[in-house]
Each structure stands twice: as C-alpha cells, then as structure tokens.
Amino acid sequence: MSISEIIGGVLAVLGSLVFIAAALGLSRFPDPYMRNAAVGTVAGLGIALVTLGAAIVHPKVGTIAIALLAIVLQLITSALGAMLVGRAAVNSHHQFCPETDTTDLGWVPRIGDEDSEAPSGLQEAEAANGLQEAGAGTDRARGRDGKRPGREDPPRR
Q1: Residue 110's beta-bridge partner residues?
Q2: Which of 34, 78, 94, 120 has the greatest count of CB atoms below 10 A from its CB?
Q3: pLDDT of 148 over the 60 cut
C-alpha cells in the first residue's frame, strides 16, 4: 500500500465517522431545529472528507478537479439548505424544545406548552408584515381553509 492510499482511506473513514455522528444527533435531538443543525453542519464536512480521500487514492487531474468542484458545491449547498429548512420550520410554527435558546426570536411555540398557539399580538404583527392576509387568517403555513394542519386557531379578539 502506498502512502496516498493510506491517507485516502483514513480521510474516507473520518468522513464516515462524521456521518455516524450526524446520524446519532438526528436520532437523539428533541426538535427539528437541533436535528437540522446536526445534519446540516456536518454534511459538508463528511462529504468533503470522503471525496478528498477518493481523490487522493486516485490522483488524476480530472478526478481532483471533479472532487474539488464537488467539495465546494457541497459546502455551499449544505449550509444554505440547512438554513432554508430551519426557516421553513420556524415559518410553519414547529415547536422548540424547552432547552433551545430562542431569546432573539420573540414568541415561539414550545414542546409541552399547554397553549402553544400564537398570541393575538403575533398574528396582528404577521398581518401587518404581509405574512397574513388581513382578516382572512391565512399565512404561508396555513391551508386554503385558513387553518394550520392538525391545529385549531385561537379565537380572535
């Protein structure tokens, strides 16, 4: 075995271990936001290590060029994808677990809250910002009937 095969194999194994750590985080974290962070942050690193290991094992100009392009694109798209999935979860009012720090977000639904619906002040703010049609009670997370799937809307005041 050459030194390049050993280094490439070590990098591929490290990338696999990164994916195993992400899988453990995916199965153990309590809310979608933490799960998203576990997968989104390590996906780029895991793919980069495995791809770099493969490029070192077979060091041809074409292989290295494709590997570098794949690494750059993966690092860009994994971070962007994780941000968009997290934003979609916030916009669809998924609940946060109590341990999640949400001080910068203002009101957020929490797992285990008895009343996890948005207060009327938040609905009025959403309507003022164009997130809801005024008086219709619809936003991007609601269906055509104006209700969120599986939830009752709080009474309007």
Answers
A1: 96
A2: 78
A3: no
